[in-house]
């Protein structure tokens, strides 16, 4: 299909994006975003300082928001040259090429990184929220440092916040910060938080060390937001069960506790649909694909997976499904290549070392079993590729296998859809990802049911063009309706409504569960 169609689609989506006026949504007062990861870090390349862009979902999603709205972004300065470029307030203009907001860095020493980031955040809260209780490891010092680092971030918030501002905490690294900040900032300051990962059921959360303190910390927010209703319901139930004095109204999503009211709701996070379609149709995307297929033995039909190498992503299970598929369908040997683009992650943690070894072993097993001189069934690579190259990989892949065991949303699924500018790819999606609630025209799988997963691969490969296109067009509408500007507008308008005393952000009677 020609790039011309890509252009048409990009224009339509641009129109949708413009209907949300971000600037308007935040009119009186500024925005202060607080996240663990920073969008840009400065590193030494010999004596020169270079800028690295973080491509994780959270930073990639919030950077355009900050570029549109302006304000301050507070984050951990993890680059080795970060201190070199900041001003006397530890801040630097961002984005580096064309600045329109301020990035303010918080410095963490090695012990703090070890206990707050690798420790309590990623060995307690992450596994608990992904219902992986067997991966929970807690040392008391993790908790102590988690608390003190949350306090350090609130110090930075205080330095950069005025009355009437909106402070927007991101994710599970800052479960205690809202209640600490509530004591310190002006009453007119709105405190809100977006939880990018799942919230588990009470039966799982009750295993969380310091669970009650975590809930109390989060109830310092005026507004607390999840991707999907199920996580909101789980959270409200946990509050009800763990905190006797909390008054929970499930219908309005309101919690009253300790003289303060928190509104709890859900706004599914989206992506910049038009940008991804544009990248997918770019010359660089095609060049990447041409080089890739030259360098590697890629078959005519391609399936793709793009993941951080995390145990929640279901990669060994996916490889097992592929193995079953090749076992049952010998005629597809030599005809289908699965390309896994992985990114190393949190490698200091034992459970991450283990999963990365398991993935390597599974790739070798499938390739040893079925591979031939001219064909490698699974091509795994973890080198960095540009965003345009990634869009090219999505576009030229006939199907995507997105099969997390549990995932807050999964923006990769949405990106794959946005990059299908020819409308001919098939999305196979885990029903355990938040994205499954949005993308109902995908072929849904239970990731551990590898037999049915292999059936879904067969179904995708035999699907007629008309059905493929109809499904993809439907998915495309769903991704466009819930794009990043929509998500931003929903969050900021809700915050502004609270700041301006307009009461509830949820209509009573909105659906629960799901
Ligand atoms: O999805 C949760 C999340 O923490 C995101 O915020 C982030 O994009 C991703 O995981 C990467 O994690 P880390 O910052 O630990 O590398």
Descriptive overview:
The structure is a single chain. Helices cover 45% and strands 18% of the residues. A hairpin with a 6-residue loop joins strand 5 and strand 6 (101-106). The chain is built from 19 helices and 18 strands. The protein has 514 residues and is α/β, with parallel strands linked by helices. It is globular and about 65 Å long. Helix 11 (273-280) crosses helix 16. Residues 1-20 have low confidence and may be disordered. The strands form 3 sheets. It has a 10-stranded mixed sheet with strand order 5-6-4-1-7-8-9-12-11-10, with helices on both faces.
The unreliable regions are: 1-20
The top level CATH class name of the largest domain = Alpha Beta
- CATH-derived architecture of the largest domain: 3-Layer(aba) Sandwich
Mean pLDDT: 92
Task: Kindly report the CATH topology of the largest domain.
Answer: Rossmann fold
Q: What percent of residues are in strands?
A: 15-25%
Shape: globular
Radius of gyration equals 23 Å
- Count of domain modules: 2
The small-molecule ligands in this entry are: 6-O-phosphono-beta-D-fructofuranose
Largest beta-sheet characterization: 10 strands, mixed
Instruction: Please tally the helical runs, counting DSSP H or I stretches of 4 or more residues.
Output: 19
**Full CATH superfamily name of the largest domain:** Glycogen Phosphorylase B
Helix and strand composition category = alpha/beta
Percent range for helical residues? 40-55%
> Strand tally, please?
18
Tell me the distance between the termini. Answer: 37 Å
Lateral strand order in the biggest sheet: 5-6-4-1-7-8-9-12-11-10
